[in-house]
Amino acid sequence: METKENGSVDTKSSVENGQLSDPAHWAVADVVNYFKATGFEEQANAFLDQEIDGKSLLLMTRNDVLTGLSIKLGPALKIYEYHVKPLQTQHLKSDAS
After folding, report:
1. What pLDDT sits at residue 95?
2. Would the CA dihedral through 5, 7, 95, 64 be positive or negative?
3. Which residues form the SAM domain (predicted)?
């Protein structure tokens, strides 16, 4: 895995044809594995505890991530900005095409 300048990490998790599979089809375990693979081992368990599957992940707001998962602010901000938001954007783009 390669850490990017912005703190996010490239991952090979849930990859289909060189791209991430549609998060809407992820089970809770896939969400947990995605965050473990991206360097958020500790925080990944919060997604398990709250039973966040791919569809739930795509519906999460910034506030949900910052307060609903009971994780520290720093990691929560990175999780939302570098992972949840881009996954939501990717999903919307793939739906539009």
Report:
1. 83
2. negative
3. 26-74
